[in-house]
């Protein structure tokens, strides 16, 4: 599936929830389902700055696509991280670098997450795209 | 619930309490970070810009005189509030952080030498750690730290053992922002003076709750921020004993703080202007007077008694929640409850309470060494002000049950 198709699917999933509880229960579930990140990757280098809680992001190339694995010590952030991994992981570096991430706003998460925490997520997105750019130039 | 205060009437003074957050009426429990402002303060702020605005101390026109006299009226009001001996002992700053930096950078740099000791405590806010680390690094003085017990109280024996003729400065917090502990500052000051050390008290969390008398305390410096005292942001106070302020070199250079400037030599203005370079935050200083008036009209003993009821109510109710542990159980506390919940990250608690319209603080509260002392990354903190109610605390408790259910 293309990046935008995955985003649209998430937007549709969220459109079913009309209460904040169901929305957050879904995010929490996503967090719980995220495959655990190997402890070896929970390094100082892989920590995303700007988060109140800690987020680790590990990136690698496999079969010409860029893959992400991530983790957080807070479950809601982990759920949001999990959604970002779901949307971006497994695509070509240039697709990731150029992706227009509109789903967060459409789901209403920007409005629901306080600025400090959004900033953390924003740094994570930025970091993912930076990886995209970096691997894109290596491939060329 | 309060005998001496009409809480509903007080709430009506704070327009922001009518806000609806995520579809629910706001419960504001982040008062230790900053309190909300009553209509009286907002009116004073607007009134200043509408009727008095001018630059102070220099103009000879009507508005300049009016603005100057309102500005100086706040200084005298603070003198009265702290029971300082002289109004020139009251220096306007941008806040507590700014005040502590002023003292560290002027008194510290002028009077500390290699081998001297500066004592702070484990429960200091970063604002009362970093400025001292900076000046210690520059001068070769040594920073020492008073330890605490598991309840979050200073170990006074250890403090006494630390004191010696090498001790030149003691800088401690009056009330801990992260734990709510009220420290025995009178005793701290007296013991420091016995070895000839000077003392600064960080009163950021104390001024809204505790009656103050800097002469009775005999502290050398006392600092606080107006925004934690129902007043405007960007404005604070440094109280200092005149003889010390006189002996200290100036801090920032510029307009207002000078007597005469030539390219060869500048002479400095007298107190308090020596420490107030540039155009100050006139509007907020003027509006701040309304905050002191507001607090004194309610009466600090009445505020303290009511907040103590809230603290007791909240402590009992929160302790009943399975897996919740209160961090900071000092015998003497202001209305701050910091807690951790087993298996739940404080950030998740904050996000889910916010969804329910409840504003709390989560994280390390700018006291990372204190969090390390307790072996935790952070806490969730509910801090109460005079406009909070037990019904709101009930909502917090329900909110936390919901958090547990959702994350369980
Ligand atoms: C104990 C204590 N000291 C210092 C400060 C710093 O105050 P300000 O940010 O107003 O300078 C705070 C504010 O949180 C505090 O709680």
Written overview of the protein:
The complex is a heterodimer of chains A (140) and B (408). By secondary structure, chain A is mainly alpha-helical. Chain A has seven helices and two strands; from the N terminus they run ααββααααα. In chain A, strand 1 (55-62) and strand 2 (65-72) form a beta hairpin. The structure holds pyridoxal-5'-phosphate. Pyridoxal-5'-phosphate binds at residues 95-97, 125, 127-128, 173, 177, 202, 204-205, 225, 366 of chain B. Chain A: It comes from Arundinibacter roseus. Chain A: This is SufE family protein. Chain A: Belongs to the SufE family. Chain A: Residues 11-130 form the Fe-S metabolism associated domain.
Give a brief outline of the structure.
The complex is a heterodimer of chains A (140) and B (408). By secondary structure, chain A is mostly helical.
How can the largest sheet of chain A be summarized? 2 strands, antiparallel
Biggest sheet strand line-up of chain A: 1-2
How would you name the oligomeric state of the polypeptide chains in this document? heterodimer
Low-confidence regions of chain A = none
- Broad CATH class of the largest domain in chain B: Alpha Beta
Q: Using only CA atoms, what is the Rg of chain B?
A: 22 Å
What structural class do the secondary elements of chain B suggest? alpha/beta
Domain count of chain A, please report it: 1
Mean of all residue-level pLDDT scores of chain A: 88
Major β-sheet of chain B, in short?
7 strands, mixed
Q: List the chains of the largest interface with their residue counts.
A: A-B, 16 and 16 residues
Q: Roughly what is the average pLDDT of chain B, rounded to an integer?
A: 96
Q: How many beta strands in the DSSP annotation of chain A?
A: 2
CATH class of chain A, anyone? Alpha Beta
Helix content of chain A: 55-70%
What is the fold-level CATH name, i.e. the topology of chain A?
Answer: Sufe protein. Chain: A
Major sheet strand order of chain B: 4-10-9-8-7-5-6
